[in-house]
Write a structure and sequence with these properties.
The protein has about 425 residues and is mostly helical. It contains 9 helices and 2 strands, in the order ααααββααααα.
């Protein structure tokens, strides 16, 4: 409809331009006609003046002829004949000018006739164009009235006095709001099930019910079902075939919804299984790494003990009686290592039998406190043994310093192992 109105408006503009050009052309023709009439009048005046002059010349020519006949004897014949020839030439020139004026007058008459015929044709064409323009204007007015009436009826019946653009814009806003609200509801714990239910149904509508529903999802009907019901409402009578088709469509919709729910549950559980598998795969390498570290630590301790024994055996004879005390110190260290292994075992049992994260953390705290207390006791015991250990000779200071360094290394390794044990249990939680 809008294209047709634009086409009619363009045609109206072209007709108007053509009418303006015809009016301008007609005005020019009128001006030319007036100029031709004025020129004809001037030509008639010139002809009348020439005729008057000719009459006067003829009257004057008669008088000289009479006078010439009376006074011929007294005047010279040569002078009279010259005057007569000059007058005759003058009259011939006048006759020639009169003939030229007659020819010009005839040409002007033909031009006037042509202009008059063109003017008549232009007036007829102009009248036809005016009539056609009036008819098109009436058609456009009728179509505009019909268009306004149609738009008004559409606004009244379907769009509630709103234009189509406003209705579509408002509908888009409502869809966006609905989508945002559903996403917010699905994030809440209370309405997460309802949000998943609507998503698996590919959209749903709430249907009011007189009876209260035990579950909120019972009043939400899939969108395809409501659309199918709206379509079948328009049928005047529902036959058995129509009802069967309706039931099949409803059944298909609910089967699709259940299929979507099952696929979503499969995806969720598969994600959990994959996560557990990944944790299991990560746990085995971690245990291997922990075992390798313990083996490395034991090897380093064995190497240090071997070095200590070799160094002590190569020292002077006076320090031999005190080797028994050093062996006792090493036994104490070994007993502390055994105690550390027991504590690690208790820690693993506590981890397996934990009732919750808080209890496990309390057990870890107790374990760490106990281990650190044992470490402090061991450190103090070693210091006491070193202080009671006597060295003789000039190299006693160096020997005592060497022994203290080795003991400090043992204590430092023990502390690092304790910290590693506690950190590994915290990371495992």
């Amino acid at each position: 409809m809008a294209d047709w109105d634009a086409l009619k408006l363009e045609e109206f503009k072209q007709n108007k331009k053509q009418l303006d050009r015809s009016i301008e052309k007609n005005a020019l023709l009128y001006n030319q006609l007036e100029e031709a009439n004025e020129e004809i009048e001037r030509a008639h005046e010139q002809i009348e003046n020439q005729q008057k002059i000719i009459e006067e010349l003829k009257s004057k020519s008669r008088k000289p002829d009479e006078k010439l006949s009376q006074d011929r004897s007294s005047q010279n014949l040569d002078s009279d004949s010259d005057r007569l020839l000059s007058n005759r030439r003058f009259y011939e020139d006048k006759d020639r000018k009169i003939e030229e004026l007659y020819i010009t007058l005839k040409n002007k008459d033909r031009v006037i006739e042509t202009l008059t015929s063109n003017q008549i044709f232009s007036q007829e064409k102009l009248e036809e164009m005016r009539q056609e323009l009036e008819n098109k204007n009436r058609d456009m007015e009728i179509l505009q009235k019909r268009l306004k009436a149609t738009e008004k009826s559409i606004d009244t019946l379907f769009l509630n006095n709103k234009t189509e653009g406003e209705f579509v814009s408002e509908l888009q806003y409502l869809k966006a709001d609905n989508k945002r609200l559903l996403s917010l509801l699905s994030k809440s714990h209370e309405y997460k099930i309802l949000g998943d239910f609507i998503e698996s149904s590919n959209g749903a509508h709430y249907i009011n019910s007189n009876k209260p529903a035990a579950d909120e999802t019972q009043n939400w009907v899939p969108l395809k079902v409501t659309k199918a019901i709206e379509v079948y409402k328009k049928a005047p009578e529902l036959s058995d075939d129509v009802l069967n088709t309706l039931m099949l469509e409803i059944n298909k919709t609910y089967r699709e919804r259940e299929k979507n729910q099952i696929s979503k549950l499969k995806h969720d559980y598969q994600s959990k299984i994959d996560d557990l598998k990944r944790q299991l795969l990560m746990r085995k390498p971690y245990d291997n790494v922990k075992t390798q570290r313990q083996n490395s630590r034991l090897k380093s301790e064995l190497k240090k003990a071997t070095n200590e024994i070799s160094v002590i055996s190569s020292k002077q004879i006076e320090v031999m009686p005190k080797l028994q005390d050093l062996e006792e110190t090493l036994k104490i260290i070994n007993s502390l290592k055994i105690e550390n292994a027991k504590l690690q075992k208790e820690n693993n049992e506590l981890k397996k039998n934990k009732a919750g994260k808080s209890q496990f953390l309390e057990g870890i705290g107790w374990l760490g406190e106990k281990v650190m207390k044992q470490k402090s006791q061991m450190h103090q015991l070693i210091k006491n043994l070193v202080s009671n250990f006597e060295f003789d000779g000039e190299a006693s200071g160096e020997k005592q310093e060497w022994l203290m360094d080795n003991i400090e290394n043992i204590v430092e390794d023990f502390s690092q192992n304790v910290e590693y044990l506690v950190d590994s249990h915290f990371n495992a939680t």
